[in-house]
């Protein structure tokens, strides 16, 4: 549950991989995503879009990013790829991928949108993923402090007058939401949270119940194990708690057919947010992480209006 999985984390697609092989890879590495209302896994839904996915991957491969490394609060070496805009003072998007995934996979479309939109983009490898060090992922508990480190890095590099936007998918969304109550730079102007959960406890118990496993005793054991062997407490952070103490504008996005992170969790996060400027986009029939694919016009319209707003 917590350990880095070398067969999934930070994986990229070999240059000559065929569409058929990539479809197989999508199916093999989709963590806990099950069926949608049509009985298909997100991997199978993505299969007809393989050409588009491959095009997005080819796009980021054609770029020449700068590798950035910085230390975490607990001594790990964190990694991100920086894609520079033509204007140095362009706004910065910092993107955080999901559970046992990779930035290139989760943002194969988002990177192009960011670059084409004139943003500086930081694609982060979450701890225990890709080129970032770490033995354990922590469901956002420690990742929120990594988010603070990346935001502070961006503010120092580009200046406090350059707007920073935090963008996360799934666990990445939970990460940026949990970070919202930390002492982020004042230049952090907005958060985009795509299918984020409310708390580590809530998502773990939800998945356990979906698998007909008694949630309370198993979660208690998992929490104890995390404290004893991984050095963190699953109950020490939640998105609603952080959002209730933050006034950073937030765009929440969720598919109403998400069978991994229930859509109600984004509704709960939205209701908990104390931000004056907040919006919730629910994408009909979209499964986990598929809102962009299934209703791109609505997704991009909401995203662009949010990013262009003068908060």
Describe the largest sheet: 8 strands, mixed
Oligomer: single chain
Number of helices: 13
Let me know the average pLDDT: 87
Largest sheet strand order:
1-2-4-3-5-6-7-8
Hey, roughly how much beta strand do the residues contain? 15-25%
Number of strands: 8
Contiguous low-pLDDT stretches (5 residues minimum) are: 6-42
Q: What is the CA–CA distance across the termini?
A: 39 Å
User: Judging from the principal axes of the Cα atoms, what is the shape?
Assistant: globular
Describe the fold and architecture:
The protein has 311 residues and is an alpha/beta fold. Helix content is 40%, strand content 16%. The chain contains 13 helices and eight strands. The protein has helices at 19-28, 42-46, 50-62, 103-106, 110-116, 143-158, 171-179, 200-210, 215-230, 239-243, 263-272, 291-294, 296-308, and strands spanning 66-71, 77-83, 92-96, 120-125, 164-169, 188-194, 250-255, 278-283. Strands 1-2-4-3-5-6-7-8 form an eight-stranded mixed β-sheet, sandwiched between helices. Strand 7 (250-255), helix 11 (263-272) and strand 8 form a beta-alpha-beta unit. The longest helix has 16 residues, at 143-158. Mean pLDDT is 87; it is low at 6-42.
């Amino acid at each position: 549950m917590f350990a880095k999985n070398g067969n999934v984390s930070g994986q990229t697609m070999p240059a000559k991989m065929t569409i058929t092989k990539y479809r197989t890879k999508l199916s093999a590495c989709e963590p806990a995503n099950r069926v949608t209302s049509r009985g298909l896994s997100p991997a199978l839904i993505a299969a007809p879009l393989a050409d588009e996915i491959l095009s997005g991957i080819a796009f980021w491969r054609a770029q020449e990013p700068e590798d950035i490394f910085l230390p975490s609060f607990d001594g790990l070496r964190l990694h991100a790829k920086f894609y520079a805009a033509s204007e140095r003072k362009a706004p910065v998007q910092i993107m955080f991928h999901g559970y046992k995934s990779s930035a290139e996979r989760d943002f194969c479309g988002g990177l192009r949108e960011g670059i084409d939109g004139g943003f500086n983009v930081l694609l982060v490898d979450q701890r225990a993923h890709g080129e970032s060090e770490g033995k354990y992922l922590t469901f956002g508990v420690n990742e929120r402090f990594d988010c603070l480190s990346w935001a502070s890095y961006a503010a120092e590099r580009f200046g406090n007058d350059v707007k920073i936007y935090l963008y996360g998918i799934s666990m990445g969304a939970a990460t940026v939401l949990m970070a919202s109550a930390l002492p982020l730079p004042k230049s952090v102007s907005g958060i985009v949270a795509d299918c984020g959960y409310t708390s580590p406890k809530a998502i773990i118990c939800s998945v356990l119940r979906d698998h007909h496993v008694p949630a309370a005793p198993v979660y208690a054991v998992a929490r104890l194990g995390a404290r004893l062997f991984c050095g963190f407490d699953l109950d020490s952070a939640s998105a609603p708690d952080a959002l209730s103490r933050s006034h950073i504008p937030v765009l929440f996005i969720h598919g109403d057919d998400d069978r991994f992170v229930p859509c109600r969790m984004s509704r709960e996060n939205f209701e908990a947010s104390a931000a004056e400027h907040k919006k919730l986009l629910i994408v009909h029939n979209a499964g986990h992480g598929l809102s962009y694919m299934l209703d791109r016009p609505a997704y991009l319209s909401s995203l662009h209006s949010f990013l262009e707003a003068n908060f």
